[in-house]
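Problem 12. The chain below contains 208 residues. Write out its predicted structure in token notation.
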Amino acid sequence: PDLLTTRTSRLLLWSLFLKGDFSRAAQLSGEVLARSAPNTLEQAFGLALTGILAGIDEDYGRCGELCTAAHDLVKIAAADPDPVTAIFTQVGMAVTASGQDDYAQLRRHVTPALAQAQTMRSPAFTLLCLPLLAIQLAHEAEPEQAVRLLSLAFNHPAHTSTWLEKWPLLTRLQQELAAELEEGQYAELWAAGRALDLKTVEDWLPAG
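Solution.
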């Protein structure tokens, strides 16, 4: 089968996204959407990825529209589920909620994404969710834990931080947390987060 009509295409798009190669990811995602109308999961993944890219550009309205459409397609394909597509779609909905300051929706979507990542025993997918959980924790007046989780997501060897560095919302969050904490505390917490063991962190993450 053609590369863009197989599960390989979703893994390739996932890899391009994590590496921050957004132009190539957008190009291939467009090809997925153009070629895969009969394949519900391919279409869902393409919509979710395009939506997340819009969210990183802070077009949260478009992010929400595309990821909602992807979420609906994932539900249609429930009889033949694909956990990668399901997680990516939930992440897209969480990105939308983060940008719109809708913290109830953020928790609603990041919690099942984390649960699915842990079921898959995939550090990469768990790390994908941690910045979104950090946004939630910062809103809930837990800045110390938010900084630790951000640092873990940025620095863990199983993850690449390029896409995180391209999302202005996270840059602003880091600046706000540094201003909120006492002088020197942010750097100490960032160092502590870098040293965290992901398995230990997973033990207290919210269950879906």
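Discussion. The radius of gyration is 17 Å. Students who got a different answer should revisit the alignment rule from Section 12.3.
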